[in-house]
């Protein structure tokens, strides 16, 4: 693993830093901190930043140039994402850029590509993903939402849950069962449709930290044109599982963790002494815990460098990506706990109107971290992948 830039990589890093400086991205990051990047209000605020990314192709850095992307190598994508994360920035691409666009390039018809790829690349349309259902989460192939074909349309009935950003989305891509008699992983098709289609209703799910990121989405006789099916009928599982060539190193998460720890250190220094444990019994233990978190954040960053090294050699990280995800998600929970403990009893305050414990952010962060080991693949799933694919252990 080579941690140093080549001359060419160093030149590209300089180009990225100049781009960030030129477009006033630091001010944009401060303005949108803590807000949902998908909301219409924030999208309006960040339009200048998004337009600059679109013009450079960096909103979709892994996309081929023919589709409006930058066609960057894996290492260049890593450098771009690393520097954006260092400055607290996002490429504001969302599900459309990271997930659906690359899938459409591979499986979409020419008409579908013509209609959707440009809008995704320009950030004109926000997409959400209809995957999980009340009885189909990690075992996604158990989904029961049905799409029955009637001529040139499918009639869609069922429910999705934990749908991130559905309250902001313009379109959804989703998996539905089109042949209920087929084996579990067959008989599923991938459909797409506008969220304002008749029969679609979105209900908010407020999480433990009192945030509205997830939703339930219900479908009642929603009519979807057959022309909005991506790939073959009853082969949607394989379309949805397509592995596409976008940057998966996790560097954004690793750098974000380090920024979070720097912020925690500064908060500890700035807080009134009577509001933290630093000057009392437990202060030494807290400093030792913070040191552990800092070392762990460095390890998370090294996991990212390992993944990008694998990608740069034209290979796909497999169990290595699971190692990184498992370690980072559990680290997020440990950081949340360390943050809470810094403030002692004040840490349990969840009142934005009071100044203690970052105006309640410590408690909210602790509650919000509960889902870290569930979202994006549970820790149990990651451990199974590491055990079977990495260590060669037999399935239980």
Structure description:
This protein is α+β, with helices and mostly antiparallel strands and 396 residues long. The chain folds into 3 domains: 7-92, Butyryl-Coa Dehydrogenase, subunit A, domain 1; 127-240, Butyryl-CoA Dehydrogenase, subunit A, domain 2 (Beta Barrel); 251-390, Butyryl-CoA Dehydrogenase, subunit A, domain 3 (Up-down Bundle). It contains 14 helices and 8 strands. Strands 1-4-5-8 form a 4-stranded mixed sheet. A hairpin with a 2-residue loop joins strand 2 (146-150) and strand 3. Helix 1 crosses helix 5, helix 5 (74-86) packs parallel to helix 9 and helix 6 packs antiparallel against helix 7. The radius of gyration is 22 Å and the shape is globular. The protein starts with 6 loop residues before the first helix and ends in a 6-residue tail after the last helix. The model has no long low-confidence stretch (mean pLDDT 90).
Biggest sheet record: 4 strands, mixed
CATH class of the largest domain: Mainly Alpha
Q: How many strands in all?
A: 8
- Tally of helical segments: 14
Low-confidence regions: none
The total tally of domains equals: 3
Helix percentage range: 40-55%
Beta-strand residue percentage: 5-15%
Tell me the structural class.
alpha+beta
Whole-number radius of gyration? 22 Å
**Overall form:** globular
């Amino acid at each position: 693993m080579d941690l140093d830039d080549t001359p060419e990589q160093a030149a590209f890093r300089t180009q990225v830093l100049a781009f960030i400086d030129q477009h006033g991205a630091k001010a944009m990051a401060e303005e949108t901190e803590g807000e949902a990047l998908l909301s219409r209000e924030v999208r309006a605020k960040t339009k200048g930043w998004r337009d600059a990314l679109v013009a450079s192709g960096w909103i979709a850095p892994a996309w081929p140039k023919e589709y409006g992307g930058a066609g960057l190598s894996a290492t260049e994508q890593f450098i771009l994402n690393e520097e954006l994360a260092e400055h607290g920035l996002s490429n504001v691409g969302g599900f459309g850029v990271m997930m659906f666009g690359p899938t459409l390039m591979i499986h979409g018809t020419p008409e579908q590509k013509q209609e959707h790829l440009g809008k995704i690349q320009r950030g004109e349309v926000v997409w959400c993903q209809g995957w999980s259902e009340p009885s189909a989460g990690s075992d996604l192939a158990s989904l029961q939402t049905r799409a029955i074909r009637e001529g040139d349309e499918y009639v869609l009935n069922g429910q999705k849950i934990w749908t991130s950003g559905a309250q902001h989305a313009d379109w959804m891509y989703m998996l539905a069962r089109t042949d209920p008699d087929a084996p579990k992983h067959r008989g599923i098709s991938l459909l797409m449709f506008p969220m304002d289609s008749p029969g679609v209703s979105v209900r908010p799910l407020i999480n433990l930290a009192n945030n509205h990121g997830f939703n339930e989405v219900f479908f009642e006789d929603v009519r979807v044109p057959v022309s909005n099916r991506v790939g073959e009928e009853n082969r949607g599982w394989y379309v949805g599982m397509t592995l596409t060539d976008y940057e998966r190193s996790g560097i954004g998460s690793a750098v974000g963790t380090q920024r979070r720890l720097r912020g925690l250190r500064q908060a500890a220094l700035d807080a009134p002494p009577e509001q933290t444990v630093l000057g009392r019994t437990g202060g030494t233990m807290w400093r030792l815990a913070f040191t552990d978190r800092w070392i762990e954040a460095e390890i998370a960053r090294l996991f990212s460098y390992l993944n990008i090294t694998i990608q740069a050699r034209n290979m796909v990280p497999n169990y290595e990506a699971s190692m990184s995800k498992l370690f980072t998600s559990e680290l997020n929970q440990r950081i949340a706990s360390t943050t809470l403990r810094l403030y002692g009893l004040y840490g349990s305050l969840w009142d934005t109107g009071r100044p203690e414990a970052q105006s309640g952010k410590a408690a909210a962060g602790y509650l919000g971290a509960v889902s870290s080991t569930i979202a994006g693949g549970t820790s149990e799933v990651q451990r199974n992948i590491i055990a079977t694919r990495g260590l060669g252990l037999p399935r239980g």
